[in-house]
Amino acid sequence: MSLFITFEGVEGSGKTTQMEMLKEHLEWKGFHVVSTREPGGTELGEKIRGVLLNMEGQTIAPWSELLLYEVCRAQLVSEVIKPALLDKKIVLCDRFADSTIVYQGCVRGLNLEAIASLNEWVSQGVMPTITFIIDCQPEIGLKRALARIDTRPNGNKEDRFERENIEFHKRIRDGYLQLAKESPDRIKVINGNRDIPVIHKEICGILDTKFEAMGEK
Ligand code: TMP
């Protein structure tokens, strides 16, 4: 069975942890699972990720930034996501097109129609079936993100988005909640302020219901 599931949220929301736990759970259930991330997930995408997240002292024009994210997505869809779905696998992706709508559209203020159109072109018809927004207070998320900085291999630096102020992160959260209102069937908002196992259980429950509806185990 092929299924495309994405995880979204503010910095430090816990989405990556939840995605990893879900991967293990789905594999335990016998599914073939591919997990990946944006920006990144391909050789080209990981190189561009390094540029996007660590632009020490440099500025980047908002449209240039948008296009770099779209390059990563185009490559990831062609090289990883589409082949895996054709191979009847479940694909889990840490961020996808919703991130671009929220970060570059709602927050940076770029034209939403242009972003939607670019997203559609580069995604080549691939759309998530389910998106989990791990929703948490930006203050809590940022605290978590900053606390794990010293575990990073790149010299303990905050990335460019973690350096933005709290207002920026609040707008990200509001952007996600607005998107969820617009697509309630696809986007599930999960309260990320709770314990990790509790959140995991809720996500598994939502998917089990989905599998039943699809006639799967
Ligand atoms: P993360 O993978 O650690 O969450 O970091 C990725 C960062 O990139 C995060 O701050 C959100 C940002 N981002 C965008 O601004 N636009 C996008 O389209 C994507 C995929 C990510």
Plain-language structure description:
- The structure is a single chain.
- With 217 residues, the protein is of the alpha/beta class.
- The chain has one domain: Rossmann fold, CATH 3.40.50.
- Helices cover 54% and strands 13% of the residues.
- The chain contains eight helices and five strands.
- The chain has a five-stranded parallel β-sheet, sandwiched between helices.
- Helix 2 packs antiparallel against helix 3 and helix 4 packs across helix 7 (166-182).
- The longest helix has 25 residues, at 62-86.
- The chain binds thymidine-5'-phosphate (TMP).
- Residues 11, 37-39, 69, 94-95, 99-100, 103-104, 161 line the site of thymidine-5'-phosphate (TMP).
Count of individual domains: 1
For the largest sheet, list the strands in their spatial order: 2-3-1-4-5
- State the separation between the terminal residues, measured CA to CA: 11 Å
Radius of gyration: 17 Å
Number of helices: 8
Task: Write a concise synopsis of the structure shown.
By secondary structure, the protein is α/β, with parallel strands linked by helices.
